[in-house]
Design brief:
Chain A is of the alpha+beta class. Chain A is built from five helices and four strands. Chain A has two domains: about 30 residues, no CATH class; about 90 residues, no CATH class. Chain B is elongated. The chains are: A alpha+beta, B alpha+beta.
């Protein structure tokens, strides 16, 4: 409860104003407040629908462009597919990753964690700027 | 489910090729192959002790989520655009 609203309720409790006046004051207070939508926390979840990957690069003196748009729904479905990978395949993948110097245990990666990762992708923006290439990954 | 697959290829001479593929009629034409592929996938699921129904459900979810996908590649005067609607 903010300070002004508390002050109005205090005045009502002390009998300085009537209930109708308190209601009018609170209504006026709410009108003066900035819209809640301006806050990032109030942004509706799942607003972003697509993951975009845009690469602008110069290769052999020729400009090249890669522009990929993937529905986030497809990523969610892909996460479910990842959950179907048999344990023995994950074991082999772990061994190969270790051999390549990437000690990641894929068996510890739970579908719920991946789901949470996809859910929060709309807050992700990656930008890589190099003299001959520019990469942008974002959600829209 | 995807309805239309569009492929546009721009050749170095600037002449574009556009191909529209209506998904449902093509799937119907190739339905025997599709059924065979599903059977092979089911056998593979059983061999690796993966739930067949879960795998089929996930496969269907992936196919259903495809509309809206767009891949656009350009290199010099050549370009390829693939869209799924």
């Amino acid at each position: 409860m903010n300070e002004q609203r508390k002050h109005i309720l205090d005045m009502l409790a002390e009998g300085k104003i009537t209930a109708q006046e308190a209601e009018q004051l609170i209504a006026a207070l709410e009108r003066d407040q900035p819209p809640a939508a301006s806050s990032l926390d109030a942004r509706p979840k799942g607003k972003a629908k697509y993951l975009r990957v845009v690469v602008d690069a110069l290769e052999n003196g020729e400009p090249g462009r890669i522009n990929v748009r993937v529905p986030l729904q497809l990523l969610r479905a892909g996460v479910q597919l990842a959950a179907l990978i048999p344990a023995q395949a994950l074991g082999k993948a772990n061994a190969e990753l270790n051999k390549s110097g990437v000690p990641i245990d894929l068996t510890q990666l739970k579908p719920e964690q991946l789901e949470a990762l996809v859910e929060h992708l709309d807050e992700l923006t990656v930008e890589v700027d190099q003299p001959d290439a520019k990469v942008r990954v974002f959600c829209e | 489910m995807p309805q239309l697959l569009t492929v546009r290829v721009k050749r170095p001479d600037g002449r574009p090729i556009r191909i529209w593929v209506p998904v449902l009629p093509v799937v119907l034409v190739f339905s025997p192959v599709v059924v065979l592929a599903v059977l092979v996938a089911a056998v593979a699921c059983l061999a690796y002790r993966v739930s067949v129904m879960r795998a089929l459900g996930t496969g269907w979810r992936i196919v259903s989520a495809l509309p809206g996908t767009r891949v656009d590649l350009e290199q010099g005067r050549t370009a390829v655009l693939l869209t799924i609607r």
